[in-house]
Design a protein that fits this description.
Belongs to the FAD-dependent oxidoreductase 2 family. FRD/SDH subfamily. With 678 residues, the chain is of the alpha+beta class. Helices cover 33% and strands 24% of the residues. The N and C termini lie far apart (69 Å).
Length: 678
Amino acid sequence: MSKSEVKTFVGHGKGFKDDIVLNVTIEDGHPTEVALVSSNESPEVGEKALPELVATANQNKQFKVDGVSGASHTSDGFNAALKDVENQVNGVQPTTVTNVKDGTYVVNFDSFVENQGLPGKGKDTLVVTFKDNQIHDLQVPDYTDTPVIGGMAFDLLKKQVIDHQSTAVDAITSATVSSQGFLSGIAQAVTAAGGDADAFASRKLPVHKPEHRELTTDIVAIGAGLAGFSAALEAAQDGAKVMLLEAGQTYSSSTTRAQGFIMGADTPEQKRRGIQDSADHFYKDLMTVYGDEPNIEPKLLRKLADESGDYIKFLEDQGLKWDKVVNIAPKEPRLTKRAHTIKGMGTTLINTLVKATREKGVDLRLGTKVDDLIIEDGVVKGVEATTVAGDKLTIHASAVLVGTGSYTMNCEMVKKLNPRMTNIDVIVGNGDGSAMKFFDQAGAKIVDVPYLQFMYYFYGVSWGDRFPEAIPESPTLPNYDVLSVDGGGQRLASEDDFTFEFTKRCWYNGYDEGYAVYGQKVADKYPVMTDIGLTTKTAHDKPFGYKETSIAKLAEDVGIDPDKLQATVDRYNQLCDQHEDLDFGKNPDNMIKITAPYYILRMPQICTDAYTGAKINENAQVLDKQDQPIPGLYAAGSCADSGVMGIDYYGDGMSLLNCGVFGRAAAKDAVAKLTKVH
């Protein structure tokens, strides 16, 4: 084009998840107006960075802008889209030709790591072998990613990259961080071998022409987590034809990232270990914890307790073996050892279920996203779905189970449904909110729970690869040696009790943050914890911790009434001197007197799942707004657990038990109705 022409171009650049598409107006050879057409970046990082990148591009009118801190993949994709336009303007075709030296190259790339169920920054090793100017082999011998998420993604990417000799492949759905790290590692290796990484990235992949297919089955289970697997396995062994659909290309559900606890009472494993327990005792303990929550349905809790033992046996029948049976806390009502643990945690559980599912003939399809329910005259009769390749599937079925998890990956939904959750530092869980769409489509009754599954404890996304010796109020790596207080400076529970006892009281007292207070003796015992607190900030840009010479100054740092905090510390020190916690019964060994210098750590909201979802009955049938079952529609797991979960969560393993018991209940009811029809 001539320099004086005004023309608009469309530029594409690979972002964090998908292409970033820009409309760019060119005048006199320079961009005069840049507009974002489409993107699919992470909501809390990439999508927030894009308006800033657009504004910068419109201001400097160049084909490259400075990146936004913390959003490097999005920034790179944005600049790639601008470069695409520049190439079009200048008539330049990106080169796909490059030369690489034969040999094996070892590189490291940033990736994902999970520590105590929380996300962190890991480091993976990639070995790239070049031969005859091609990528001959790709191996990841050492990685921190979850095997059935990152590990699966590496295998999928390896095949695509080697088959097409291109790195212009899409990130694996449900493993974006792992995918981006893997591809960046290949680029490093290409450069080290004397090649041009952009040449590999510019090689176009074959375009698949989408097809439409109609399929028929008895039961469709949506979501390859424990709810979906339990339903599919139960239905298959009862003689039904089952299809299990998972939107991700890997097994990325909350089940995979679980810590490997499943609750159960009067189980075969308890009996083998000489542990005395009963369903009645379990139900009594559950009601002690949940009984005062307005959303709890005792009949559903009763079902959980009564069928927990049989569900543990059901998992054993699938080939699962237990490592230990432990208690969740050293105090009642969580003192009984009924948390069955799995060596290898969620990964072992998923691998066992996948193997069992295939052996029983379940049609398991990854990379298949359900778009809509098929509803005829108020009866759910199947689903419409789209594969990762773009194929459209119409699947007819007699029953559909929704087991797609909650909505914690959907930031807009989190904010809309939980307006009081204003101090979230970390949020995990893998539900995208699709279940809520299905429920709305079917006219289901939604139980609104005004909080997520969360705790107040010391953890932050800003920590990177650092991790403390112990964490105040953590459910899995607790630090009992501190004093925990709410925003009013009050001590609420024993620090060695289960963390949700503190969480419940702090929440109902109206505070969005808790605090851990301690003195120099504890600081010396936990130097890494203390240093992280004093050198990092929360997601809301507040210092995580403070060190002061007086309690009053500590209180002022975090906005607590100094007199109230001083009174609480004085009382705590008095109990330490007596070597007996007369207020809450804390173990005397963890009663360490608080002496100067003084420390305080923020404990923001750490969220692991959500509770708002469909109302179900004992058969896991989804109920309509008149509390009547919606024919053909079932739900289990985090999208339908409001009747059995509350803010004072009973303990690790309850969510998975809920998935299993109600997943099986759905299958049994659906198969029974199927048998009657046949």
